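Marked as duplicate of an earlier ticket. Keeping the data here for the record.
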Amino acid sequence: MKTRWSWIRSSPLTIRKLVILWAISMFLAWVILVAGWHTAKRELTNHGNQIFENILILGKVRELELAVLGYTREELLWHATYSDSEHQEHHASGNQKPHGSEHQKAEVYQKRRDEYLQTAERIVADSDSYVTTAKTRQLWAQVREGLGYFREHSELCVHDALETEEQRGEDLQARVSRLQQQYKCDMGDLLYAMKRLQRTASTWAALLSAGSAVLLVGGSLGVIRRMIRPVLALTETAAAFGAGDFSTRTPVPHDDEMGALARTFNNMAVDIADREKNRLQFVAMVVHDLKNPLLAIEMASCLLRQSVANEQQRTSYVDAIGTEVKRLRGIVRDLTDDIQVTTGRLSVRKTQVDLAALVRQLVQTPAEAFSSHKIVLQLSEECFVLGDAERIERVVQNLVSNAVKYSAPGTRVTVRVEAKEQLAVLSVSDEGPGIGEEDLRVLFQPFGRGRSADAFAEGTGMGLHIVKQIVEAHGGRIEVQSEVGRGSTFRVSLPLA
């Protein structure tokens, strides 16, 4: 059923496209795998760096916690040294400082307290470099606020009651503990994120590896299926063809490179089969052509022996023998030329030849051979070429005789010789039935007689093939222009001397 999209014609999936798609898929899978690996590695590195930083920060927070504990302890020891009553007596008597060993202990406690407070303040002063989240920033601010209270009382030398100092110290320790706990929670989140990222990366790597394996196996099987089967079928067909089965053909499973190879093989098989058929027909025709002249020569010889007294009959029999011998000589010459062309031993003895004079002599001398047609000569004054006169004569005879043979009696055959652009051009035109496109493709091949040629005249199919080889041996070319029902023109171009 036709659809609205039936006009779209998708191009066939050739082996080249299949391999390209396969390679692109494998490359994309590899790129995704590498990109994912680099991304996971970068994220894991970032998380690792953050965990390392949190460990260092936890060390600082632990140091801060110890400093706060030390400050609180020294403050409590100072309070334990002086009771409230003694403290009041010292104030009443105007002495702000204790005497003797108590005075020394107070100074020691106060000095240690100030050292712990300075350590805590130094850590808090660098807290900006330890801030990782808004929550930790808020907790650092609370710790800084608590230390600010202790610094203010330390500078004013003001000591609150023991319970108040304990409460203040516990509150600051609680703030530091919350800060420490927050960093531990952040580190736990980072560790969880790292584990989840590792699981995700492992899952993606496994999926991509499995996908790459599927692509590799599937692509390999696809390429093997698209190549091995046609190759095996082609091998089997070639073996059968080589064994003599000229009718066998290889299947064309797909419209791809292997399909093109199969079509080429089938076309070659058709061409070879046709040539073999033509060869057999040629052999049969040669046998027939040799048989008739030999029979005629034998009969003429017998009659010649029996008619010694009649001179006229003797002459006619001798002429018949000469005619048949000439036919035999022509067949032998065709076979000899065919062998020389096939083996590449076509000899050419080049001399300066006047092509116009040669054509005039050949066409006008045996006038009786072309008496059934109107031979029109259009020749230039002189047209010299460098070639073998005997071979060129063979070309002219073949073209003119074919024009006469394959056109109706009484029609015109035009033979033209002219010089054009450093070339001598010989053209022979007839008013025959013309040549079809299929016949034109095999016209210059060995035994290349067209399908319609047998309806007009007999022949071996070797003439034009030999003519083409002779022309090309002289460095020229032969062309044909023909239209069915309007005649044909054969044009030979040879370099001027």
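See parent ticket for discussion. The radius of gyration is 57 Å.
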